[in-house]
Design a protein that fits this description.
Layout lengths: L1 E6 L1 H18 L6 E6 L3 H16 L5 E4 L8 H4 L18 E9 L3 H13 L4 E9 L11 E5 L6 E6 L1 H4 L3 E6 L6
Parallel strand pairs: 2-3, 2-4, 4-5, 5-6
Antiparallel strand pairs: 1-8, 7-8
Helix pairs in contact: 1-2
Length: 182
């Protein structure tokens, strides 16, 4: 499968800084924000965003990890048991402004599952979506509030985000070739 780098480490860093400022501006500050990163790569992205906001606002934003394994709508189609990871909600979500963080937005089905999971933990004031890459091809009426980079793709392409914390390097690549179905 051929790869093309679509976001370097430096570009990723600049995008995360811009996104952190956009979140603070839209919310009139950082008070009441909670970042929930979707496993796996959304968690380190949420931590990086919170660290950037701490640097320029001086506010610690709680960061949690959300596993959507049991909320997926394709479990019966998979024919295997989902690998369930730990969900860590840092505080009561009632009345908070949740920023759901993920690496790539594609069909929207993972985001729908994440929203179902969040509501099971409490009723936030708002749920906002932040993604590093939006590649299009939505199957549900879901859009991100904050996007690092829009990358129009074909159905034969895949976007893969690699992060230092998980993969040993920071980059986003566009992969062309035989791609598995969503």
């Amino acid at each position: 499968m051929a790869e093309k780098v679509i976001m370097t480490a430096a570009e990723m860093g600049r995008a995360l800084s811009r996104l952190a400022h956009e979140v603070v501006e839209r919310n009139g500050g950082a008070a009441g924000l909670v970042f929930l990163g979707m496993r796996t790569r959304g968690v380190p992205l949420a931590q990086r965003l919170a660290a950037r906001i701490k640097d320029f606002e001086g506010v610690d934003i709680p960061v949690g990890a959300l596993d959507i394994g049991l909320y997926r709508d394709d479990l019966s189609n998979l024919g295997v048991q989902p690998k369930v990871q730990r969900t860590d909600i840092p505080q009561d979500l009632f009345g908070k402004d949740i920023v759901l963080v993920d690496d790539v937005l594609y069909t929207g089905r993972s985001i729908r599952a994440a929203m179902d999971a969040i509501i099971d933990f409490g009723r936030p004031r708002t749920i906002q979506l932040l993604v590093l890459v939006d590649r299009g091809h939505r199957e549900l009426p879901i859009r991100a509030d904050y996007v690092g980079k829009n990358i129009p793709t074909s159905l034969q392409e895949e976007v893969q985000v690699r992060l230092e914390e998980v993969d040993g390097q920071d980059e986003a690549v566009l992969m062309r070739g035989e791609v598995k179905a969503p």
